């Protein structure tokens, strides 16, 4: 009787071991087939960001300098700052997206102007009334620098999109170590800023306090209101 019970327990144990082995084998085989099956690849690629997500990343990207004022050592950072602004602005035009420029511009008059300029350029883009190609990804040429004082740089950023050449001119200074644009000008043919702030031959960027001149600012916005698109 005792031998019978031992035999029965032994058979039960063997059965359990066999079932476990078979089960593990099936699982391993299934995973292997899923990995090696022709035409079936397991993708580990990160999904590409949408244009809206890229624009938001650009809008939130911080740029700062180490010292209280800019120096020649900061030129690479200043160029990256200007290029990010170009991609943000021209990308917003092309994608018809509303974006924030507050990370790049602190002067309220210049910020309001840039928002209005974007709105009008987007309307022109929808109507096919633009003379240049706007886009999110631009090709940049070598930037031009001029140090105007200890904390103020003039920067010219030539760039192109689909063969359409453009150029952004900016005055950049550091405010609490953060880079900020204090004046800007694209100056494209029939561009909004050319109409509102002056012809390229006349529009010179040298005054960091220009957008604090309320008389001049009021004149700019009067011209913006008269633009019909």
What does the model show?
This protein has 229 residues and is α+β, with helices and mostly antiparallel strands. A hairpin with a 2-residue loop joins β4 and β5. Strands 1, 2, 3, 4 and 5 form a five-stranded antiparallel sheet that branches. The radius of gyration is 31 Å and the shape is globular. α2 packs antiparallel against α3 and α4 packs parallel to α6. The chain starts with a helix and ends with a helix.
List the helices and strands and how they pair.
Elements: H1 2-36, H2 51-60, H3 75-95, H4 108-126, E1 139-140, E2 144-149, E3 152-161, E4 164-175, E5 178-185, H5 192-197, H6 214-226
Antiparallel strand pairs: 1-3, 2-3, 3-4, 4-5
Helix pairs in contact: 2-3, 3-4, 4-6
